[in-house]
Amino acid sequence: MREVLLPKTVSVFREGYSLGRLRADALSGLTVAIVALPLSMAIAIASGVTPDRGLYTAIIGGFLVSLLGGSRHQIGGPAGAFIVLVSTTVTLHGIEGLLLATFVSGLLLMLCGVLRLGDYIKFIPYPVTIGFTAGIAVIIFASQISELFGLAMSGPEPGPLSEKLPMLMASLPTLSLPATGIALFTIAVIIILRRMRPSWPGLLIAVTLASVLALVLALPVATIGSKFGGIPNTLPAPALPAFSWDLFVAILPDAIAFTLLGAIESLLSAVVADGMTGRRHRSNTELLAQGVANIGSSLFGGICVTGTIARTATNVRAGATSPVSGMLHALFLLLFMLVAAPLAAYIPLAALAGVLAVVAWNMIERPAIIALIKSSRGEAVIMMVTFLLVIFRDLTEGIIVGFALGSLLFIHRMSKSMRIVPETAERPVENLDVETVIYRLDGAFFFGAAATAGLLLDRIPDRHRTIVFDCSTLSMMDSTGAYVLAGTIRKASRKGIRTVIVASAPELKEMLVHHELHDANLLFVRSMQELETLPQTEKGPR
After folding, report:
1. How large is the greatest C-alpha to C-alpha distance in the chain, in angstroms?
2. Rounded to whole angstroms, how far apart are CA atoms 524 and 362?
3. Which parts of the sequence belong to the STAS domain (predicted)?
4. Fewer CB within 10 Å: N-end or C-end of the chain?
5. What is the pLDDT of residues 27-56, one digit of tens each?
6. Quick one: CA dihedral 455, 415, 441, 478, positive or negative?
């Protein structure tokens, strides 16, 4: 295996893994497991599947992500970003279709890692990630409104927000005060503990207290036991997802959406971990591990796996030193499930909805949104378009359109950096013809700047006998820029004007020569100093 795809686990053990590091990783793994326990079940329920599938995802997927991944601190598991995609897939294709889509997504993620596509996926513009994350937060909160208020829906709850809101409004008369009270109690406990005791596992404490309160007061609220019959206390036997060609064709778009979203979410989470630790993850290794983790999750009946930003950040803050922490987090979750599975039946669904409501609120990066609005109108528009498309259209469509708009904004800004500056109106250069003009080309000469640069080049007067293009400060030139410059050289050559290109990079010379300039009155030099020392009789390309 090449070094670029080597898991960070191997790197850690090569460095030497001490007992002290194991203790630190065990403590951080336990901390993350306590956070992940209620969150994994809540995400699974919101995704339209049973809570045990969320635990299977966190245990199997989380272990494989840490074992094989390219980040020292990444925590894998079910993520809120997938709630709409997973619930839609379950509605359209059933649980069999979801498992097959997760399996195929794993294969596609592995292919992305092998083909080194991680180097490109992580180039998602910052406004897109901000708008995307905020849109996901709104979707998560909207998916929990019925559980937060104990609404009795008249039919299956639709996924799209535009269809969901009218049904929720129509169901408001069925609001349950006990469910609403449990949800508000859960949210209040989480907020109070976060402010007064930030080191305590607020999510688990809040859910536990809410469960005890509902049980002691015999509140008429829906629980995991009343809706799902509890959760098993063991892992299921692994099995391949059911396969048929028709089902494969039907779930392929969903698998591609899982792949795109999973790649972006996991690499974004790894970047966040890098920023907190000063480390650098291996993006392609991470994609490869995410692929294996999704395959493993589907074999055990789990849902989509990806890197989770909140749990990864918790892992870093808890003092994790290596991927061992993530593997231990999965083992602790397995232990919790084996020992305490019967207790999960008493957890109110309104409490889990309160947990997700807090998660959704924390996902909205309010300072970043304000900064974008104040600093750049163009980037603020990109963020808002991404946000609205994610909410009202589709997650993948929001990412693609946001990326396209970000690329157009980048091209526009880069095109403004291209300048063609006359150093002198007419400046004789020693050992060259006396009527010489020198133009310095600055910035990036690429397709975005080609039209403007072409107009400037066409305006260069042809009364000179020598035109010098100083390209020594040119940051890059693509084939479109070379084509425009080659056209100017041909035009000058037809009028008997010699062109001199000053450039140290051999790539520029090769690119221009490929545009059939062999017979043009053209000279290449590596610097202005070399230009001064050339014999006056030397002409033509070098």
Report:
1. 102
2. 58
3. 437-512
4. N
5. 899 989 988 888 899 899 888 899 999 999
6. negative
- In this structure, the chain runs to a length of 542
Output the DSSP codes for 331-398. HHHHHHHHHHGGGGGG-BHHHHHHHHHHHHHHHS-HHHHHHHHHH-HHHHHHHHHHHHHHHHT-HHHH
Residue 246 CB burial class (10 angstroms; 0-12, 13-18, ≥19): exposed
Three-class SS of residue 499?
A: strand
d(CA 500, CA 509): 11
For residues 102 and 303, is the Cβ–Cβ distance under 8 A? Answer: yes
pLDDT tens-place string over residues 167-188: 888 888 899 999 999 999 999 9
Backbone angles phi, psi at 2, to 5 degrees: -70, 155
CATH code of the domain occupying 419-533: 3.30.750.24
For the chain, the domains span 8-229+238-408, 419-533
Q: What value does the mean pLDDT of the chain take?
A: 86
- Whether 423 contacts 455, CB under 8 Å: no
Among 205, 144, 208, smallest CA distance to 358 is for 144
pTM metric for this prediction: 0.77
Burial readout 467-476 (b: 16 or more C-beta within 10 A, e: otherwise): bbbbbbebee
Would you give the DSSP letter of residue 235? P
- Which H or E run contains 277? helix 245-277
Cα separation, 347 vs 211, in Å, equals 5
Amino acid at 449: A
Tokens 């050992």 belong to: 431
Neighbour-count burial of 337, counting CB atoms closer than 10 A to its CB (0-12 exposed, 13-18 middle, 19+ buried): buried
437 backbone dihedrals φ, ψ, rounded to 5° = -125, 140
Q: Name the token pair of 362.
A: 């924390």
Mean pLDDT of 201-217: 90
